[in-house]
Amino acid sequence: MRVLFHTILSPFSRKVRIALGEKGLDFDLMAEKVWERRDEFLALNPAGQVPVLVETTGFVVSDSSVICEYLDEVYPARLLIGSTPAGRAEARRLAAWFDQKFHAEVTQNLVWERVTKRLMGLGEPDSAHIRAGLLNINYHLDYITYLVEERRWLAGDDFSLADIAAAAQLSCLDYVGDVPWEDHPDAKDWYARVKSRPSFRPLLADHITGLRPPVHYADLDF
Prior knowledge:
Elements: E1 3-6, H1 11-23, E2 28-31, H2 39-44, E3 52-54, E4 60-62, H3 64-74, H4 85-119, H5 127-150, H6 161-175, H7 185-195
Parallel strand pairs: 1-2
Antiparallel strand pairs: 1-3, 3-4
C-alpha cells in the first residue's frame, strides 16, 4: 500500500490527499510530527517537510507540487493539471498563487499562530499576524469570486489542481473558524461544490485532540 506522510492542518498534505482521491488511488495516512525530526523521516525527505508519498514500489516523492505533477504523469486517466498547454499553465499559475501567496499572507498568519505554534510549544499567538491574516483573506476570497463569476471552476471548465490547492488552504482555515463565508457567498458556493466531492470528504472527518472544528466544518450544506 502506498503511504502518505502528513500532518492534519498542513494544506500541502491536504492538497495531495485530495489529488490521490481524485485519482481513485488507495493510500494509508501516516501522521508525522515534523518538528521531532525523526531520522527515519529525514531519510525519506531531508528537508524534513510533509507531504511525502511512498509508492507501492518504495519510490519516494516529496513536495506537494512535485507529487501532484508525478501523479498526473503516472496516472493520467484523470488529469488534474489540464489537457491543453493553456489549461495546464492556468492551473499551475493558480495552484502556485494559493500555495505561495495565499499561504504566506493568510494560512501562515492564522493556522501557524493559532495551532502550530501551540503544538510545537513555541509560545502564544502573535496578534499582529492574526490581524493581518484576517484582513488578507478577504482579498483572496474576492479573487475566488472574480474567477468563478467567469468560469465554472477556478482555472476553467474543469475541476483542477487550482481548485484543489485553494480548497486545501481554505479547509485548514475553516477548521479554525477563520473564513468569513457570509461576506463572500460566491466563494462559499464554490467551496461547497468542492466539499461535496468524494475526494474531499475524508478531510471533513479530521480532528485534532483538544481542538474541535466549528459545527459547519463537516456540513456539506453549510
